[in-house]
Amino acid sequence: MNASKKVAFYTLGCKLNFSETSTIARNFTTEGFKRVDFSEKADIYVINTCSVTENADKRFKTIVKQAQKANPEAFVAAVGCYAQLKPQELADVDGVDLVLGATEKFKITDYINDLSKNDFGEVHSCEISEADFYVGSYSIGDRTRAFLKVQDGCDYKCTYCTIPLARGISRSDTLENVLKNAAEISAQNIKEIVLTGVNIGDYGKGEFGNKKHEHTFYELCEALDEVSGIERLRISSIEPNLLKNETIDFVAQSKTFVPHFHIPLQSGSNDLLKLMRRRYMRELYVDRVKKIKEVMPHACIGVDVIVGFPGETDEHFLETYHFLNELDISYLHVFTYSERDNTPAAAMGGVVPKNIRNKRSKMLRGLSVKKRRAFYESQLGSVRTVLFEGENKEGYIHGFTENYVKVKAPWNPHWVNELKQVRLSHIDEVGLVRFEFVEEVVETETLNANTHR
Ligand code: SF4
After folding, report:
1. Which of 102, 160, 201, 366 falls between 20 and 30 A from 70, CA-CA?
2. Residues 427-449: tens digit of each pLDDT
3. What's the rounded mean pLDDT across residues 159-187?
4. pLDDT value of position 208
5. Is the Cβ atom of 154 under 6 angstroms away from ligand 1?
């Protein structure tokens, strides 16, 4: 029935969403659908939504319009976090035919009959407590690196966050299945796997459908390090209180895990960390950074930080600014606080005016540029390994070193998806790093040595 049918996907949000879209897309292909780009004419468009994205609702409507423009007759389906949180709101958007909640999204092909448009958006959602089972996923073919889902949901109660409401309790894939998926990915010549989830440091919880921890995140890393054929493993993001010293030591001596840590901080003020109901104080964060830099001085450390949280005074903000300025970190992801329904923070006093939130966000983004440049400068002259990406951007090829330095060079299709050793030489006018290939360097140095002998 579906041989001639075309399906297109649009993903909003995080690496986890991309890994799930990729798995859902493979299910469609198994059913005989042909996957096309979202800009092309398709019979069905699937939008994987996010609840964290600023203006998620506006973004969603724009994307639905884009699909309708490409094919007004097409069937439009919405899945993902926003679809779980506000199913009826999405179903009421003109052009939407189907909205599936967290328990139904992986069974979307069961809901696809003759693809004729519905008079109104059909909703198949659930109470989030029902989403207590685990479905594995990984992305492949969309990018140079694969996102491998190892964990889902979260049992933490951060006061600004909707993710537990959208994805449910913390649960993990079985170690055996993670290793199987990792082997499948590396068998397809993917050189880098990024471990993803919601709270991956909590890996092992709910592996067999119960609350117990069958394995730890450290054990997961140990086991993955043994899977043959994997060149690079990158930890996407991990809570500071769940990043144990033994894991840091393990990464430092590992063959495959790269020296790059993305660790959410959210605030440099302990008062605000309490209001956010985070599970650590800033002193623990300092310890983690110190430990990492002790055993891996060249490691890259990325930091998530929220500005404008209710109750954040100028003093609190400056505390965060100075805390980050003094910390040996490499870049920031700055999030401007925005109220989310059904979160405790949305009912808190001390609301920070939008213009102040934006001013603070601008200041921290300026600090991030400074930190990234200082980190890149500290790496110049060092020899690193770059994984080159497949997109020709205005005649240039880009790639990332193991410690997440972004490099650039004139486009060369032979380098795509190749791992190559380079010596980082200088930073160009747009802040990206240029390099020489090591064998060339060795050649030149030998040549020089010979000529100078
Ligand atoms: S750890 Fe906190 S911020 Fe992260 S997903 Fe869980 S509740 Fe949300």
Report:
1. 102
2. 998 889 999 987 655 555 555 55
3. 96
4. 83
5. yes
- Give the number of other CB atoms < 10 A from CB of residue 154: 23
Beta bridge partners of 6: 34
**Strand-pair partners of 303:** 263, 332
Q: Is the CB of 164 under 6 A from ligand 1?
A: yes
Ligand 1 centroid to residue 157 C-alpha, Å? 7
Which residue is closest in CA terms to ligand 1's atom 2?
158
Q: Separation of 383 CA from ligand 1 center, angstroms?
A: 36
| Helix (H), strand (E), coil (C) string for 236-286 | CCCCHHHCCHHHHHHHHHCCCECCEEEEEEECCCHHHHHHCCCCCCHHHHH
- Atom nearest to 198 CA in ligand 1: 5
Mean pLDDT of the chain: 93
**Could you say which DSSP state residue 138 is in?**
B
Distance 262 CA to ligand 1 centre (A): 14
Distance 47 CA to ligand 1 centre (A): 23
Residue whose Cα lies nearest atom 8 of ligand 1: it is 161
Express each pLDDT in 71-121 by its tens digit.
Answer: 999 999 999 999 999 999 999 999 999 999 999 999 999 998 777 888 889
- The pTM of the whole model exceeds 0.90: yes
Q: Note the pLDDT of residue 452.
A: 44
Whether 1 maps to a domain, the answer reads no
Is 19 among the domain residues?
A: yes
Nearest to 178 by CA among 231, 221, 145: 221
Q: What range defines the domain where residue 175 resides? A: 132-258
What is the distance in A from the centroid of ligand 1 to the CA of 158?
6
Q: How many angstroms does the Cα of residue 167 sit away from the middle of ligand 1?
A: 11
Can you spell out the DSSP letters for 380-422?
Answer: TT-EEEEEE-S--BTTEEEEEETT--EEEEE--GGGTT-EEEE
Give the chain's domain count. Answer: 4
Whole-number pLDDT of residue 144: 83
CATH at 326: 3.30.750.200
Element (H, E) at 235: strand 232-235
Nearest-5° angle of CA 94, CA 95, CA 96?
Answer: 100
